[in-house]
């Protein structure tokens, strides 16, 4: 069976065994326990992470203690505090493990190096980022135009493997609905 | 003075004169009058556009006639229906000219060709897309956590050259606030 990272890259560009081995040699394995932090607010973020196993979320907390969940990540997804990672600024969002996690970490320097050495990797980054942008636009649109019910139904439809895996309270803060509303929607 | 497209690309990667001339030779000039459509819902979208002069917006209309503005574009910004352009599917958002516009059009095939021929162009695409993703994440966060007032103030702060150039009604549909609210915010 192909390595999950290889499968993910090859959805964009086919690789030779040598190319994939070269790419993989730049990644470092990371193991984290459930409830531990991958990134804290204010951290410098030197890596991005490919998820081999487990589930994480990135979120911010406003000054009233209210949380907003930016993103979830499960197997074969990437996660980082992207702005801090790209611009070398302190993290404004935090990332925590919702389960025990096995990740592959890639440093900013190695990411740039791989992109320079291997056009296919740079192309993979461009395509991945574009698809992420399109998905985020849809989410924004649904947030503005969709009801709480429509947002929840869309989430269940888009991520059928997630809505029973992730605590309801985090799904509520991802969809921008109250906990009461999310509980009502789950009961239906 | 450097060509605005060259300045935009060189914010990421320096180009030789030959490289820039080669890139520019793939673009086609487009002139459009105020109020005309660049993309209609259902169109196939074969180009993305770099704005030389003028102002555009992309938007969708829901089945109650309510509009949501996805994006504005003015001089040196890019605009397209990105999902339709990347995936070759019919457009689900429309793009209209809010002023007389001069654009440079690049086809999907030429975009891919330039990216393959010139690593710097592929890198520019990856960086541009990443920065767009980060900006969109912030907008989403503000939409969920910020009040109408905070969203408006952030818009004015971020785009001081836009809020008196674009009709209030479109800024309202970009920020997800009512026309009454936007008028009240402008009066302050």
Number of helices of chain A: 8
Order of helices and strands of chain A: HHEEEEEEHEEHHHHH
Q: Mean of the pLDDT scores of chain A?
A: 93
Radius of gyration of chain A: 17 Å
- Here the CATH topology of the domain at 4-120 in chain A equals Jelly Rolls
> What is the multimeric organization of the chains shown?
homodimer
What would you call the structural class of chain A?
alpha+beta
**Cα distance, first to last residue of chain A?**
39 Å
Structure summary, number of beta strands of chain A: 8
Provide a compact summary of the structure.
By secondary structure, chain A is an alpha+beta fold.
Structure description:
Two copies of one chain form a homodimer. With 188 residues, chain A is an alpha+beta fold. The first copy, chain A, has a domain of 117 residues: Jelly Rolls, CATH 2.60.120.10. Chain A has eight helices and eight strands; from the N terminus they run ααββββββαββααααα. Chain A has a four-stranded antiparallel β-sheet with strand order 1-8-3-6. Chain A has a four-stranded antiparallel β-sheet with strand order 2-7-4-5. In chain A, α4 crosses α5 and α7 crosses α8. The model of chain A has no long low-confidence stretch (mean pLDDT 93). Chains A and B meet through α3 and α5 of A and α3 and α5 of B.
């Amino acid at each position: 069976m192909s390595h999950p990272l290889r499968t993910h890259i090859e959805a964009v560009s086919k690789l030779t065994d040598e190319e994939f081995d070269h790419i993989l040699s730049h990644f470092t394995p990371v193991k984290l326990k459930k409830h531990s932090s991958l990134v804290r607010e204010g951290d410098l973020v030197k890596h991005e992470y490919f998820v081999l196993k487990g589930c994480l979320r990135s979120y911010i907390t406003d000054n009233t203690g209210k949380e907003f969940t930016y993103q979830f990540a499960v197997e074969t997804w990437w996660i980082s505090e992207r702005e801090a990672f790209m611009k070398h600024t302190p993290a404004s969002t935090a990332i925590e493990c919702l389960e025990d996690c096995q990740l592959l970490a890639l440093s900013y320097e190695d990411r740039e190096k791989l992109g320079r050495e291997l056009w296919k990797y740079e192309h993979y980054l461009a395509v991945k980022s574009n698809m992420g942008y399109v998905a985020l636009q849809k989410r924004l649109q649904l947030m503005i135009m969709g009801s709480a019910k429509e947002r929840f139904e869309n989430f269940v439809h888009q991520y059928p493997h997630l809505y029973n895996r992730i605590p309801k309270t985090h799904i509520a803060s991802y969809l921008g609905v109250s906990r009461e509303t999310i509980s009502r929607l789950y009961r239906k």
